[in-house]
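Quarterly update from the structural biology core.
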Amino acid sequence: MSELFDAVDALVASRAKLPPPAERKRLRSAHGLTIDEVAGALKVRRATVSGWESGKTEPRPPERDAYARLLDRLAELYPAPPGMDTAAETVPAQDAPVPATFTAAPAPAEPLPTEQSSGAAGVSTPVKPQVPAEVLADAPAAAPGGTTGSPASRRPGARKASAAGTPAGGADPRFENGPLAVVDAGDGEVVAYCVGGLVLDVPAKSLPSLVEWTLAEAKLGQPKLSGPGRPADPLLVLTPAALERYGLPTTLTAQEKDAGRIPEGHKVIKQLTRANWKLTKRGFGPWARIYRPAKGSERQCVQLCIPSWNALDPRFWGAAAQLPPAELARVLGTYAMRVMTPRGSTAVTGLELMTALHPPTHAVRDEETGALRQADAKTPGSLGSNPVDCAPCEAPDGHPVVTALGLPRFHVRGPAEKLFEEAYDWARPMTDAECTLRYLVGLDVNMAFAAGANGLTVGLGEPTHVMNPVFDPKLPGSWLVDLSHVDLSHVKVGKEWVELDGSLLPSPFTPKGDQPTGPAWYATPTVAYAQELGYDVTPTEAYVRYDNGRYLDGWYQRLRDAYLATMADLGVHADMEPAGFLAAMDSYKGRDPELSIVITAIKATVKGGIGKLRERPRGEGWRPGERWRALERPTWRPDIRAAVISRTRINLHRKIVKHAAFTGQHPIAVLSDCVVYASDGPSPLDVLPYRDGKPLPGGFKLGINPGLVKHEGTQTVLWGEGVREQFDAPQLNFARFIKDGTVTDADNGE
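Predicted structure, tokenized:
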């Protein structure tokens, strides 16, 4: 009889009532439980619980009864708000179809809880909320070994990251699972962690089949960023466990690191070849692209990112490579949605973003056939499909156009022969008055090079050589002109002439801040600033670009929005008062270390993208006078890089001059986008003039927007005098060390 009773109990349990999927997720999140904790307690896979919470699958006995009991206990602790639909659902009949191709956990990424002390590489360890014993007392014990890639626990009720930029898949059903997935393996299965907590079962047994599955079933990718552009290819990030599963090495040998790839004879490459897949010329390296030639408008291409092969350089991605799969998917997914799907290093991605926003070609309809074809002309506002050679003065040493000049073998080109538009590295000795002050305060310009690109007119085509031109501040180009007559002691600020101590200011015309001594090549923003300061300019020669436009505006706007949205998620907003902004910036990185990684990557995308415009040879057996691979890109444009750097340096100098004219304070050191002042107090508010909460117009202003400034760091004047004396460097650049006061090597100011 007891067996009959047990059978009846089992039958009742098989129809145990459960709340709707959304309520299941609410109850779990309310108690601070992760999907992995629930899965471990019920002895099921993480993906199984994800499926229950998404409504794609329903629990079966015996797990169903334990799951229902868990939810009942949680419902007692966390009653549903009034008006919420919590009507129970019953399990479908055994013969009802249940989708099983994918299992999903649609919960959006949640912020980390309160942090403990920092762990390895400065990444804080999240505090896991404890699960009261009474909640899971009647649930089965956790399976031995746990699960792989467990996401960090979240504190219930914490604010979630806001969406920004392109959504995971937009409204395009082709990309409904987001732009990328982190593929992990363990316990005989392979799973893909996607954006927003989504988890997919991966049936592929080999790398070729993984590529096939990605293109046919995974629904990964990202909509195009501009009308004539193309969607982003899906990105797969392979963990070391996934590498082992698919027959790839978990690390590269020293020889493979030097080559940047595994040997062409590797068995996995042979598998790809047999399956008719191809690799790009870069081969199978940390950022491998696997493709088949496109058929019509449909591309067949998957990109791989392999963190253990140093795909995520710690200089730009922090400790991202050490994150568990779910957290890594969140970091890369946030970056992808707000910037774009990574295409390689942050520098490569920065350059690719320019092209994605201004595709070189576009489709037109053939008047005779009615079919779509590629337009003969380039897309307006783009750089086109064909590279153009730069002017000789814009070319770096070793470029073929420099070799063609026939200069002596060991000739070193000076400012009258070569364009030197670089960021500031300037410092001076402190005055007696400054030595009586107590502090050195560093100010750092937010996203300085992005701000320099905003609204900048740059050349889109090849240069035109002009002799004795009349300078036009609206015409991008390189100008040979003598600016040695510009006297910083007597300059125009706005419409008024002001008197300054020019000996305490860096020259705006040279990276080292030295006064020019004769004719030199300058980009348009530098020459225009000389005019703005009230001085005449008379170029003797120029290379100008009549085909021009504001090529970088969209690039700036996308990166600005990504930066501001992510900083807002970290508690720093654009509309904060100065004191509140400084307080919010003090500890923003600790509020969510994962999003802090995204911030670092966004900044690196800006600087790296600008730097990539003048990429130098990278080995490849190159010799001076020969072309190198980067020269074949339309985006190899040293003139655009020079213009952005010129404008960034001029923007900073303009603020320095206005600040000096208004306060009498002069900088002691400037490095790139950081400037240091001596001050009576340790705060930027002790340096910057604010009246009724308003800053000096046109001067430095505290805030998170690009072009505004934040606190870089403060040290004492005694510290400054001490390190200069210690290293016998009277012009040691304080801006390089102001952040934490650690002087890592001697800097004598040379």
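The first strand starts at residue 115 and ends at 118.
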